[in-house]
Amino acid sequence: MIALALPAQDSGTFTPPGIDEMHLPAILPWGAHEGFSKQMLLVILSVVIIATFFILAARKQQLVPGKLQFAGEMAYGFVRNSIAKDIIGGRDFIKYVPLLFSLFFFILVNNIYGAIPYIQLPSFSHVGGAYVLAAIVYVTWIGIGLKKNGIKYFKLATVPSGVPWYILPIVVPIEIISNFLVRPVTHSLRLFATMLAGHLIVMLAGSGIEFLVMQENVLLKGASVLVLVGAVAMYMLEALIMALQAYVFTLLTAIYIEGALHADSH
Amino acid sequence: MEGSINGSLNLIGYGLSAIGGGIGVGLVFAAYINGVARQPEAQRVLQPIAFLGLALTEALAILGLVFAFVLR
Question: How many Cβ atoms sit within 10 Å of the Cβ of residue A35?
Answer without folding.
Answer: 13
